Amino acid sequence: MALDQSKIGQVVAAQMEALEGRFGDDCQVGDVVTIVEVLGPHGSNISVRASDGRPHSRLGLLHVAKAMLEGQIAGRGLDEGE
Q1: Could you tell me which residues come within 8 angstroms of residue 22 by beta carbon, excluding any fewer than 6 positions away?
Q2: For residues 32 and 30, what is the distance between their CA atoms, to the nearest angstrom?
Q3: Tens-digit pLDDT profile for residues 50-73
Q4: Tens digits of per-residue pLDDT, 21-52?
Q5: Distance, CA of 82 to CA of 68 (rounded, Å)
Q6: In angstroms, how far apart are the furthest CA atoms of the chain?
Q7: Are 47 and 35 in contact (CB under 8 A)?
Q8: Which of 63, 57, 40, 58 is closest to 48 using CA atoms?
Q9: What is the spatial distance between Cα 24 and Cα 27, in angstroms, rounded to a whole number?
Q10: In terms of Cα–Cα distance, which of 52, 62, 10 is closest to 29?
Q11: At CA 71, angle to CA 32 and CA 23, rounded to 5?
Q12: Helices then strands (H, E): number in the chain?
């Protein structure tokens, strides 16, 4: 059975709508990192892919995203789902 890509497509489409609503047409998308959990008979695995292959760039984006999510958990109300 092939992997169902619709979930990734739905998340990316929602992200693009949110970004367009927040920033308008005067901006462009920079680097992108996707993190996907794959579940199967083998258990759970994580896959990470980035548009920029430089490790320091990928790690930097992940570090900032982690800090933003930790702020949400702490109730500081940083970017919701973006």
Answers
A1: 82
A2: 7
A3: 999 898 988 999 999 999 999 888
A4: 999 889 999 999 999 999 999 999 999 999 99
A5: 9
A6: 45
A7: yes
A8: 58
A9: 7
A10: 52
A11: 45
A12: 2, 2
The one-letter code for the residue type at 42 is: H
Between CA 27 and CA 37, with CA 31 as vertex, the angle to 5 degrees is 125
Structural element, H or E, at residue 77? none
Number of neighbours of residue 74 by Cβ within 10 angstroms: 9
**Structure tokens, 16:** 């693009």
Q: Is the dihedral of CA 58, 14, 82, 69 positive or negative?
A: negative
- Please give the pLDDT value at position 45: 95
CA gap 36, 42 in Å, rounded: 15
